[in-house]
Structure formats: C-alpha cells, structure tokens
Amino acid sequence: MEIQNNQTNIDLLKKAFRLLVTAKSLAELYEDEKATTGKYVHATSRGHEAIQIATGLQLTPQDYLSAYYRDDAMLLAIGITPYELMLQLLAKRDDIFSGGRTYYSHPSLNHPNYPKIPHQSSATGMQAIPTTGVAMGIQYAQKMGIIKDEKPIAVCSLGDACCTEGEVSEALQMAVLKSLPILYLVQDNEWDISASADEIRAQDMAHFAKGFKGLEVFSIDGTNFLESYETIEKAISIIRKENRPVLVHAKVPLLNHHTSGVRKEWYRDDLVEAQARDPYDRLKEELYQNDFSADEVENIESEIRELVYSDYQKAKVAEDPRSEDLYDHVFAPTPITEEKGNREPIGKHKTVMVDSALFAIREIMDKHPESLLYGQDVGIRLGGVFREAATLASQFGQHRVFNTPIQEAFIIGSTVGMSVVGLKPIVEVQFADYIWPGLNQLFTEVARSNYLSNGKWPISMILRVPIGAYGSGGPYHSSSVESVLTSIKGIKIAYPSTGADLKGLMKAAYYDPNPVVMLEHKGLYWSKMKGTEDAATIEPDEDYVLPFGKARIVQDAPISSNKNTITIVTYGMGVYWAKEAAKNFDNQVEIIDLRTLVPLDENAIFESVKKHGRCIVLTEEQVSNSFAQAIGGLISENCFEYLDAPVRILGAKDMPAIPLNSNLEQEMLPNAKKLHELINSLLSY
Prior knowledge:
Blueprint: H1 6-32, H2 34-37, H3 49-56, E1 64-66, H4 72-78, H5 82-89, H6 128-143, E2 154-159, H7 166-178, E3 182-188, E4 191-192, E5 195-196, H8 197-200, H9 205-209, E6 216-221, H10 225-242, E7 246-251, H11 271-275, H12 279-289, H13 294-316, E8 350-351, H14 353-367, E9 371-375, H15 392-396, E10 401-403, H16 408-421, E11 424-428, H17 439-446, H18 449-452, E12 461-467, H19 482-486, E13 492-494, H20 499-511, E14 515-521, E15 537-538, E16 552-555, E17 566-570, H21 574-582, E18 589-593, E19 596-598, H22 602-612, E20 615-622, H23 627-639, E21 648-652, H24 662-668, H25 672-683
Parallel strand pairs: 1-2, 2-3, 3-7, 6-7, 9-10, 9-11, 11-12, 12-14, 13-14, 17-18, 17-20, 20-21
Antiparallel strand pairs: 4-5, 8-15, 13-19, 16-18
Helix pairs in contact: 1-3, 1-4, 1-12, 1-13, 3-4, 3-10, 5-13, 6-7, 6-16, 14-20, 16-17, 21-25
C-alpha cells in the first residue's frame, strides 16, 4: 500500500491511530486490572506501537512473521483481535496461539488469512536463527519450484538488547552469505530490563549490523508512524524484488514496565524524557494537522476503550484448559507404526553402517525434492568427515547438499524455519562433543514447537550426530551425550547398532513429522573394531522402514531350571561388548538392543527382566545421573517382585572427559572383560 495522496494518507493515519489506541487501551486495562491480569507475566508495546503497526499493516498472508513478546500492537495490525490477545493473557483454552500454554504475545499462528507465525520462545535473540531458517527455506523452495508465484518474506522482530546474543550474529552471517529474503526489525528502547544501553553494548544495532557486508541498514525514529511506514515499505520492496536481507533499526521509548513483574518505577530514571516521545501523542497531532477534530479523536478512543473492556469481560469468563489438555501435542502422529519392506534382500553383500546411512539419504533425496542436507563439511569437497555424505552434493547439487559455517546453533535452529516452510532438513553436527552450542535451539525452539503451538507447528527434521569413543579420539571427539538429549522432551532419539537398523530408522525418521536425533556410533561406521563385524549387514530395500520404540532381541536366552540367566539392556557399542561377553556363558545371557531411546520400548525390557530376574544396563556414558540409571530405576519400579538380584549399571567411569591416551581411555570405558566380571557376579548372586 503506497502513500499516494492526502486522502490515502489520512485513511492510513486513522487506521494506525485506531490500532495504536487499541494497544494503548489494552496496556492501560491490564494495569488497572492487575490484580487479575498480573497472575501471568506479560509485557506490552507501549512506546513501540508506531513501528509495530507500520510493519504489521504491510504484511500479507504469504509472509512469515516472528513477533517477539512486546509486539501486541503488531499482532493487532495483522488482524488479531483484542479478545484473542486477552485469551492468551489469561491462559484460556481457546487461546488461538497456544491453548493457554504460553505467555501473552508469544504467538504462533498457521491460518490462511494471516501471515504465518511459527512458534518461538520468549524471543530474546533465539528467534533470529529459526526465522532466518524460514528465509533460507523460502529461497530453497523457490529454487525448487515448490513456491512458484508468490514472493514471501520473513520478518524477524527483535529488541536491541537481545542483539548482543551470539545467535543473532550467526543468523546475520547466514542471511548475507546466502542473500536471504528477510527483514530484521530491531526495536531499540535502550533498556535490557534494568541494564541501560551504556552498560551492555559498545554500539547500537544500526552500527553493529554494518559489519555484515550485504546487509542494508536503515535507522529511523520508530515513534514517527509515517517515517516508519515508508521505511518498512521500502525495505519490503527491496527484499521482495532483490531477494536480499534488510535491517531496520527503530529508536523507541519504553513507556510501560519491562514486564508486569518488573516495574518501571523500581529502577527507571528516564520516565519523563521517555514520555515526551510517546508515539500516541505524535500520531494524534498528525491527525489534528490533517483536519481531524478533537471530538473525532475522542469518539475513536471512547469506542475502542469500550470494546477492549467488553472483550476483557468475555475473556475473563472463557473456559480454562482442561486437565486432560496437558497431554495433547507432545508429538504429532507418525505414519510409521510397523516394520515394512524387505530387511534382507536376497543376493546382496553386507554393507558397512556408514554406507547404509548414505544410501538411505540418497534414496530419500532422490524421491523427495523437499529434502536437503547441510552441516559442517558435508558439501561437495569432502562429503562429511566420516564420508557419510560422500557423492550426495555432486548427485543432487550444492543447493541441496551444502556446507555451513561452524555454527551448531544455526545448523539446528534453522531447521525450525525450514520445516514450517514445508521442507524436510537433514542436518549434521560433526561430533557429539560439539552439540552444546546448539542445545539452546534444540531445547527451546525445536523440541517445544509442536507442544507450545498447540499442534500447529510440529518441526519435522533429522539431526545426525556421530557419537562415542573410537580409537583414542580424546576429550573432544569421544563423548556420549544421550543423557542430556533424552532429558529434552519433544524430540525422538534413535541409536542404532547395525546398518539395517540405521537405514530403517532413518527412513522412519524422514516420514515422522517430529524432530529426530540420530545418534550414530563412529566406531560402528566401518566395523573396523574387533567384535563389531555384525554392524555391517545386508542393506534393506528402499521400502524398508523400522518404527521407533521397537527394541531388538539380539540374543535370546531360554529359561533354565538349573542355572541362572540374565538380561543385558543396551544400545550402540554396548551391543558388541555384550555379545563378546556372552560367549563365555551357556545360553544364560539375553541381549536387548533398544535401537531407539525415545520412545523407549519398556515392554520389551520388562518382559525380558521378568523372564530372567537379573539385569545389567550397559552404556558407554558415565554412569552417575545417566539415562542408563533412569532405565535401571524403571526396571526396579516395574519389575521389583521378579528380581533375584539388584539391577546393576555398567558404564564409563565418572571422569570429566575421555583422555587421549589409549591406556587411560581403556581404563575409563566399559568393555567385554568388565562386563564378563559383572555378569559372573550377578549370576552367582
């Protein structure tokens, strides 16, 4: 919408004023009714309204918006009603964003008549990566013809204080590197809760952003509605026509509390100066200059205050979530519920595990143009440091298989944006030891999206993680991290021990609408370590899928009347330690390979333990506070009356890291010899 003539100008000003008065009235009502509205923490847009409204009015249903927790005026501008906002404020069941699960102005919306709003967290910088992932997904979908005629953009709204986060820099780096269609809107009120700008930054975002070559930057007075509108209009035009990123830095005052729980009068010394820059006063003056009368302005304000109060009364008595609602949308339903396809086609030779993964992804990418693979060193030159992506870039093109910078947070968090555009990203973190910078995105954005959006935005992605100790890899290439990952609710986790299982689970993961982490043991990739030869298997056919949550009985042990028997519950490399140790016992050891850690096949575990009455849980991780100990606790709780001995856990010693020296590594890690001794001890208990 262009500002072409005076009447258009007046109509636009009037529309903006109505929206600003609505946002202002909401903030004032929340303060007046704080005994009720303060039950749940909230923030409002007071002082930020002009730039937010100028942005919201220009977005279309084809666009994607990341609105942060102070953006209620922007939400009003795209068409959300005061009543709908208040349903979220009061955490009601009919809250259109989350069904009462998350805070006010933490939107998620997937509706054909509005800009699409993927779920994001409290948006203190983390939103920059998923939203940049949206822009990367738009670019890819256009290139592949998945998006044809539209010219969607992504809009990422940020407070200036959160731009000091490293994840914002990762996002900007990729936006300019890939020339992505994204608008970064930075609202700068010069406060980070009680920390003022001079305490927390060396320069504002307008100056910082100029260090990113190719990022056009506009710095404006965000209290001036017409200047804001025209700047946003220009920025959006550049992005749509030229497919490149733009950053708009808008200076605004913060006129309300940081949040309802952190009151401005506790620490602010600039309230008088801030009030003098109120965009409400400025926009009202613009109306007077365009021949609006005081009566017309007063009538608008009176009408809107009455509407807001009426909506509030209705929202107060709206239904709260029901207790049973708590359990909805943990995972989206998966279509893969049973094993299908041919696991062992006749006439094939055994395939090493790393090639089983490679072939699975090759078949997926050949069939599904919406799939793509990216991460560190997976591109055309190397194809992964373990050659797990060899030939894929040359076969499918560097737009589908490409390297990223060393940015684990971006690699993981960008999958949120890719997924909401309708793509299926397969990404890699090079070693489990380096997953830590990405855990913020995995926990806060990826894992929670489906649940906190009330089922609107499940994140469909696969994260491949080479894991485990392999030949003196030392402290930075040997770690096991499954206990941390299994504590993150909302992701599925596979840990296969054979090539056939890896291929079947990779296929199931692709068709699963939820986020999946594939833990792939480096020591099993090529079956080079003695005793791991069975990790190489006949490659299943293209249609083979293996559902999550189904353990494998590696070795059965019959019940005996004259000798004790035992169950070993394990996964990954533990399967091969268990097989080696079991050779010394006469049909006394049953081995359960979990194959997936989440969901966990509890029935298979309990049935085996009840059958044998003795159990060892075997892991490569350090034992204390581990996933393996949690399994031991489950067994004790559910099989106590069947046990003839205490459940024992065998894993690595509780050292801070795995040393480089091979003797020290051997001392720290479990192995078949240590397991043999423990089996002996429990069988004779």
